[in-house]
Amino acid sequence: MEYRPFGQTGIEVSAIGVGCWEIGGGYGSIEEQEFSAAVHTALDLGITCFDTAEAYGFGASERSLAKALGDRRKDAVVVTKFGIGYKEAPNYRDSSRERVMVSIEKSLKNLNTDYVDVYMVHWPDLNTPFEETMRALDDIVQQGKARAIGISNFRREQIETSMATRRVDIAQYCWNMFDRRMDQEILPYCREHSMGVMAYGSLAYGLLSGTFHADMSFDEGDWRARQGRMGGINLFQTMFGPDHFPNNIKAVEELKGLAAGYNKSLPQFALRWTLSHPVVSTALVGCRKAAEVEDNVGALGWDIRQEDFAEIDAIFERNGVVTCPDVWLERE
């Protein structure tokens, strides 16, 4: 296993991490028994990072992760998030001090642990001063309930405002071949300030799994089934919208040829691309089965040649793939 510094936290983290959105119901059904087996396989292979959130199934993901880890909690770097999914809050977001203190206790109970390694704000709450949130998070660290704190999906100026009160240890953003927006401002800022970076959506929500085809349909409970009807989340139009999805699939078919040149699967090739950015500490990948975890580890121990980075860009260009849409992944 390859390990990388987690910013300046003193924590080392596996280059591949397990994203636990799926077990909370984000992608339709997933068997808890299979998830537990996948978690144990990950630990056996040296994967240490597990990312969940209060909002993933209203605690269901945290509880499933706790059950899967069992007495191996000490072998894991557990990251959880708070701040979204509250029906009574404006825009469903709340990062007030009161919410921080209530949510950390719920997450610790769900996770069956005394502390989390990283506690993160899931989305920025524009109705609460960032200073209030950061002071509350620092108190959580001082109380021993978290080792480090972080943010997810903040704009650069929002990170800067937060940093004026308390250092942001870890940042989490979408980063993959199909979504490169963060390399414009966010990732350079994280590198400048030596933040650890967690890349989510490493396989572009399944596009880079190599299993999709232009005529496929998703299960009714799967958010990708709403392609073309994503409301304010316009980013997904360039991934799954009807004007883009067929071209994206064509690009994926060409990428398979490049991956084959390394004797790698497309997911392994895509993960290697994500991990090639020097600021990325860990790339999160959802997993349903142990075999998927075993396949993901094939992304480690080799490098993509420079000329093939250029060929990837050429493939995307000739297929009209939009990698930097002028949108932010949020509902304004």
What does this structure look like?
By secondary structure, this protein is α/β, with parallel strands linked by helices. It has helices at 32-44, 60-69, 97-111, 130-142, 156-163, 186-192, 237-240, 245-260, 266-275, 290-296, 306-318; strands at 3-5, 12-14, 16-19, 49-51, 77-82, 116-121, 146-152, 170-174, 196-200, 280-286. It has a single domain (3-207, 265-302), classed as NADP-dependent oxidoreductase domain (TIM Barrel). Strands 3-4-5-6-7-8-9-10 form an 8-stranded parallel β-barrel, surrounded by 4 helices. Strands 1-2 form a two-stranded antiparallel ribbon. Helix 1 links the parallel strand 3 and strand 4. Helix 1 (32-44) packs across helix 2. The longest helix has 16 residues, at 245-260.
The CA-CA distance between the termini, in Å, is 40 Å
CATH architecture grouping? Alpha-Beta Barrel
The mean pLDDT is: 91
Task: Report the structural category.
Answer: alpha/beta
Instruction: Report the top-level CATH class.
Output: Alpha Beta
The percent range for helix content is: 25-40%
